[in-house]
Amino acid sequence: MKVINLEATNSVLNTYMAELRDKQFQQNRTLFRRNLTRIGQVMAYELSRTLDYSSVNVTTPLGTRKMSLPTDHIVIGTVLRAGLAFHEGFLHVFDKGDSAFVAAYREEGNVERMKIHLEYMASPHLTGSTLLLVDPMLATGGSMELAYKAFLRAGEPKKLHLCVTIAAPEGIDHLHRVFPDDSVTLWTAAIDERLNENAYIVPGLGDAGDLSFGEKM
Is the pTM of this model over 0.85? Predict the structure, then answer.
């Protein structure tokens, strides 16, 4: 698996990430979701450079112009609920893409006894597609692995891109084991220090789902 860390190059993404992490900015739920969306847009743009393109003739009012357009069939697959605002950013860029959703959640507890549960999946056919699996936080990697295996029920994509805002080294190591070759790419806006004993990313930003939509029962 290839890893592309967008934080390695300074850009306006730094501003969105700083506000996303900041406890004061996090009090504004609308701004939090908006920053997740903007990070998704930036990441989608960078990812678009890796797609396949072909030349087509575009008719203008005064003639024709040959242009290179992407040929990938994009499907944006998102882990509910935290991924919804992030998903929207990718849809802004890939507005002709299809969408897929999976509901996966983890039981609270320590890293060694962490359990991931899958409850719902809805997806178009994925065979031959370019699947963007988006989820804001990559902690242990268990939810991402389970979500991908669930989507395989709809067919096997031609290309797979894993897209997150913040990744923990433990989650990256796990996905390296799940996806050992370079045909899969992990895109992240930051790589943080570690997981704590409760499998939360440190320093991270907290619970992206709660910050986006309110605390859950």
Answer: yes
